[in-house]
């Protein structure tokens, strides 16, 4: 499910991908939604149904439980809207917004879901910044339950069953390059998690990976440099505050 805002012009110089949980927001939205549950916790029997690699199916059960407990759409939306942004992220959004329109094509790739993401972005006034959002589709059914489906299936052994971000990134870049008739000058990827390492492996030597410092994506890049030199090609620029991303981008767009 890719939600989007209008036609994208073909003159963009740069393509920048963002993760959502713990990258844009300083929380994991799937954990945050539990605050909408009675007593702000889930029963043990429900937690015990989780199986590694099957997190999407587990979250479908969590959302069904919330609906059974009388949790409404507005309860879930207001819980999502409360999530704080990561340090400097709103400054980064402002920087991207203020650049000439031909500079950045901005895409979000997340294993959360479209409802959580759109709720937060609209509240933050940042929805229009994103040309595409790739996430697990989620909509409320007539019974008032938020129903989430897996984004796709794939063959990547590294990633959860419902989403490989490298497949999404590769397909998107290939399709857009064909539509545009030329490649981007550079591609950037801002993330934090192990599932952000996989798409960053697909970046080339002119591209920049922005892993959140000391989070799993950063550790995996460091381990790869040590264990398999040359395997990870992109320039790596770790960040604690997204203002560091702004500083790096400001230099690169001026080249």
From TrEMBL:
Endoplasmic reticulum found in the keyword field: no
Chain sites annotated for binding substrate: 30, 111
InterPro entries noted in UniProt: HAD-like_sf, HAD_hydro_PyrdxlP_Pase-like, HAD_sf, Pase_PHOSPHO-typ
Binding site for Mg(2+): 19, 21, 192
Cofactor field: Mg(2+)
Family (UniProt): Belongs to the HAD-like hydrolase superfamily. PHOSPHO family.
NCBIfam families registered for this protein in UniProt: DKMTPPase-SF, HAD-SF-IB
Name of the protein this chain belongs to: Phosphoethanolamine/phosphocholine phosphatase 1
Organism: Amphiprion ocellaris
């Amino acid at each position: 499910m890719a939600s989007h805002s209008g036609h994208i012009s073909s003159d963009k110089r740069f393509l920048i991908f963002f993760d959502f949980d713990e990258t844009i927001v300083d929380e994991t939205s799937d954990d945050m939604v539990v605050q909408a549950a009675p007593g702000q916790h889930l029963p043990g029997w429900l937690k015990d149904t989780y199986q590694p690699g099957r997190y999407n199916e587990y979250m479908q059960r969590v959302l069904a439980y919330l609906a059974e407990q009388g949790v409404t759409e507005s309860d879930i939306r207001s819980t999502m809207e409360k999530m704080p942004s990561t340090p400097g992220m709103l400054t980064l959004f402002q920087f991207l917004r203020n650049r000439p329109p031909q500079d950045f094509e901005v895409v979000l790739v997340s294993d959360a879901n479209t409802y959580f993401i759109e709720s937060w972005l609209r509240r933050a006034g940042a929805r229009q910044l994103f040309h595409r959002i790739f996430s697990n589709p989620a909509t409320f059914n007539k019974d008032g339950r938020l129903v989430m489906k897996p984004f796709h299936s794939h063959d990547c052994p590294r990633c959860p069953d419902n989403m490989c971000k490298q497949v999404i990134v590769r397909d998107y870049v290939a399709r857009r390059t064909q539509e545009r008739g030329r490649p981007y000058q550079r591609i950037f990827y801002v993330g934090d998690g192990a599932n952000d390492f996989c798409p960053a492996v697909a970046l080339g030597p002119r591209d920049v990976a922005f892993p959140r410092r000391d989070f799993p994506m950063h550790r995996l890049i460091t381990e790869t440099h040590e264990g398999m030199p040359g395997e990870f090609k992109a320039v790596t620029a770790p960040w604690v505050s997204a203002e560091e991303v702004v500083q790096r981008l400001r230099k690169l767009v001026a080249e």
